[in-house]
Amino acid sequence: SLSAGLDLPGRFLFATLTLMTLIAILVFIEEAVYIYRKIPSSKRSIIIWINAAAPVISTTSCIGMWVPRSTMFTDFTAGIFFAIVIHKFLMMMIKECGGQKVLLKRFENGRFTISTGPCCCCCLCLPRVPITRQTLFWLKLGTFQFAVFRPVLIFLSIVLWTNGNYVLNNLSPKGPALWISCFIGALTLLALWAVGIMFRKVRILLKCKNIIPKFALYQFIVILNHLQTTIINIFATQKIIPCAPPLSSRARGSYIAQQLLIMEMFLITVISRVVYRRKYHDLEPPECVAEELGDKKQTP
């Protein structure tokens, strides 16, 4: 067994990381109970989904650490879950503004800045798009397509992998791994772009709701779960991470990625509890805001 092949420091590390995962799950359960009791039903499920991202990734990484052969399935499970969370985060920003109708009323003459990351941050010449029901639909579609197509592509990858056609190391144009990875990458960038456009517009309005720390935590999960893991896997594939018998370079890279994710997701779970636990006041209706601005103009 795996535990029998570990020395004393290795067993201590595995035990510590497993304990961190269990604590993260307990913290999330306690937070979910609090949200269920205190948060209005319209926002409840969305906030629970977003808070569940870090504990779920920590749990899948812990399972992959103890059962190395399950790594592909655990990575795919975390990937599917986070694809849904990206869509939920966009919906949370809309809900925090009071819903779609209220958001359209607040930004009646406003415009979306589409020259933002990760797709078009350098394209400053792009026009600003009016905020309408149609543009909101396209933004929601940008994240929803990721929540739908990523699970489909991951299911296709598993089917091809069980048949022996999908090999992660084989990135030749003739193999399916390269094309599926590129397609998932393009869908990911499109979804993150939609969230970035919305955040850029509502960040000042939702400052009282601590949207900036919430967005920062969401961005950390994106970077750590996708970029960090991809870099480590590339290093392992290129033998930059040396093998340590009985572990190959790839297996060792997988272990490093999983162990780092467990520690990082534990910290994010604890910080999320602090950020989402605060009591926030609801935003003033658009009519009240307009009246206050009118009064301030008349006062001088």
Automatic annotation (TrEMBL):
The chain crosses the membrane at residues 12-34, 46-67, 73-91, 137-161, 176-195, 215-236, 256-276. Pfam families: Solute_trans_a. It is found in: Membrane. Keywords: Membrane, Transmembrane, Transmembrane helix. InterPro entries: Ostalpha/TMEM184C. The keyword Repeat does not apply. It is a multi-pass membrane protein. Its main location: membrane. SMART domains: Solute_trans_a (SM01417). GO terms for cellular component: membrane. This is OSTA protein. It comes from Sylvia atricapilla (blackcap). The lineage of its organism: Eukaryota, Metazoa, Chordata, Craniata, Vertebrata. The gene is Slc51a_1.
